[in-house]
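Q: Study each token:
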Amino acid sequence: METREFRIDDYDSAVELWKRVEGLDVAEGDDRETIRRFLKQNAGLSRVAVDGLTIMGAVLCGHDGRRGYIYHLAVDPKYQGRGLGKRLIGECLAGLKRAGLERANILVAEDNPRGREFWRRCGWEDLDEAAAMGIDV
């Protein structure tokens, strides 16, 4: 199994994987053109894990120049528990560090306790002083 940069050609397989993984929602903003723009704006940061031609893991990673953000980490259920998710995260964080960032954030759904525990095991911490908010534009 190898890891490499997430390319727009990986989009269909990544969406299929995201839909299969519990706790991850594919929503507006996850269409091909938006992901293409995200990958271009954050070149080299998003990653996939491949076994031959099959994507077994995928993660989107980017930044706004101040903070890094990780979205849609997913590992095929058959490959979970083998350190693949941690490997992908490590590669994302290394890329953010090379870009000069010192901190990254994620959003984890309240109703995803398994995902929250995974992130805590990877060293991430709850931000008690902050709450996620959003608005349609």
